[in-house]
Amino acid sequence: MGDEELRDAVAAGVLAAEAGHRELLQSIVEVARAIFGARASSIFLLDAATDELVFEAVAGEGASSLIGQRLPSSTGIAGWVLVARQPLVLDDLENDPRFARGVAESTGYVPKSLMAVPLLHEEEVLGVLQVLDRPQKERFSLQEMELLGLFANQAAIALDLLGRARRARAVVDDESPLGVVARLAATLAALPVERRDPALDLLATLERVLGR
Amino acid sequence: MTEPHEEELPAWSLPAAALESIRMPPTWPDRVDREWAWGGSTGKGAVVAVVDSGIERGHPLVGEVEEAVVVTGAVGEEPSIEEDEEGDACGHGTACSGIIRSLAPECRLVSVRVLGSGWTGSGRLLVAGLRWAIDRGVDVINLSLSTTKLDLAAALHELTDAAYFNRTIVVASAHNMPVESFPWRFSSVLSVGSHDLDRGDTFFYNPNPPVEFFARGVEVEVAWLGGASLRSTGNSFATPHMSGFCALIRAKHPELTPFQVKSVLYLTANNVVEETHG
């Protein structure tokens, strides 16, 4: 366990943080869907351990059935966007037999159009944001592409936070010797003040004994 | 015509006595225009490699694919390159190929598939695929992919420089997101963003780099999987337009270096032509 993870674990207070981040992701897909007037919007998270894309948040069509479903990380449209790190907008998707069949099998709903954008944070690519079936009344504009990029940036920050919270959680749940420090921080935070202060005094003494 | 790059040139300096050895044949007209640059060219003879998701065989908008390879390799293993019988893992490589074919109908297409074997390590596969295409000596490489991995930047820089001096033009999609990515930012590649006009024959020079050219990238009718076509938007569809122009120029003027091809594209860009010649 690295210093940074331990710091994250303590700083996050950890427990229950994940639920808040999930709400944030959900809110991003809801807003993306509303702004573009689209039928659905979703966020895939890259699971580096299994090398798959996982549906993490969905707004609109398919919302209940999709969360947790997994896709290959480098095939299909989301896979291309992830690897190429480039946004893509496609219309008339029903013309693509492989896409239509694959999507229909998992959701029962085949979108006609799709906007997909990579979620990039610093050097890392964390996932893909998709917006499905925006109204086809007018021509797609470069401004919409910019807007999609802005949303992707926000979603990437949220995904980065979620990733940190999960790693921190893993530290706390871990049986490793240093995990006790994170658990102790969470315990202290929950104590009433009259019990917390003496405990903090004790820890300050320990810190002095350890030479800092 | 003699090709200067094949002669024994002084490597690092030029003695006056050797001036004759670098005499350039006077092939450029006073005014370079599209007629001189690619008039009558169909791209015949030029080889274009599409480093992407593969190319669907037999697509009516793509036609013959001369060679198709796939780059694979787990993390920690040396990537290997084999003949690709699978086709396209997504549809994107087929789309790019169709655009190139629409501009340069007789160019020779080579598919270098770097997608489909997982996201992990895909940056290394991109580097290996690019290296293979450069070593093969293709005229043009169409590259919509990029990486944000800093530890791959040096290798990509070295490769695109090698391509530049090896007469291979690397045409790369610019990235319109707030992150550093490579190799499109390197000056040894020709980087492309989108304009939103309905015209595939129209491209612009950008006086404010790093994006060097803008080509059609909004609602482009493209080839897709299953012999189908659909409408698409993104810089990755602007890029193959510039690759197509490069193929046309290279087919007609095989002696031109990437530096010279870029100059020809500058001189024939719609904004440059209109402002210079009305």
Tell the overall outline of chain B.
Answer: globular
Beta content of chain A = 15-25%
Query: Which regions of chain A are unreliable across 5 or more consecutive residues at pLDDT < 50?
Result: none
Number of strands of chain A: 6
CATH architecture of the largest domain in chain A: 2-Layer Sandwich
**What series of H and E elements makes up the topology of chain B?**
HEEEHEHEHEEEEEEHHH
Q: What's the overall average pLDDT of chain B, rounded?
A: 92
Radius of gyration of chain B: 19 Å
- Extract low-pLDDT stretches of chain B: none
Q: CATH fold name of the largest domain in chain A, please?
A: Beta-Lactamase
Could you state the oligomeric state of the chains shown? heterodimer
Strand order of the largest sheet of chain A: 3-2-1-6-5-4
Number of strands of chain B: 11
| Helix share, percent of chain B | 25-40%
Whole-angstrom Rg of chain A? 21 Å
Task: Describe the protein in words.
The complex is a heterodimer of chains A (212) and B (278). Chain A is 54% helix and 20% strand. In chain A, helix 1 packs parallel to helix 7 and helix 2 packs antiparallel against helix 6. Chain A has 2 domains: 23-162, Beta-Lactamase, CATH 3.30.450; 174-210, no CATH class. Chain A has helices spanning 3-11, 17-36, 63-66, 76-84, 97-107, 142-173, 179-190, 193-209; strands at residues 40-47, 52-60, 70-72, 88-91, 113-121, 124-132. Chain A has 8 helices and 6 strands; from the N terminus they run H-H-E-E-H-E-H-E-H-E-E-H-H-H. The longest helix of chain A has 32 residues, at 142-173. In chain A, strands 3-2-1-6-5-4 form a 6-stranded antiparallel β-sheet. Chain A is α+β, with helices and mostly antiparallel strands and 212 residues long. In chain B, the strands form 2 sheets. A 9-stranded mixed β-sheet of chain B has the order 3-2-4-1-5-6-7-9-8, with helices on both faces. A two-stranded antiparallel ribbon of chain B has the order 10-11. The model of chain B has no long low-confidence stretch (mean pLDDT 92). Helix content of chain B is 30%, strand content 19%. Chain B is built from 7 helices and 11 strands. Chain B is globular. The chains are: A alpha+beta (212), B alpha/beta (278). Chains A and B meet through helix 4, strand 4, helix 5, strand 5 and helix 6 of A and strand 11 of B. Strand 4 of chain A pairs antiparallel with strand 11 (229-233) of chain B, so a sheet runs across the interface.
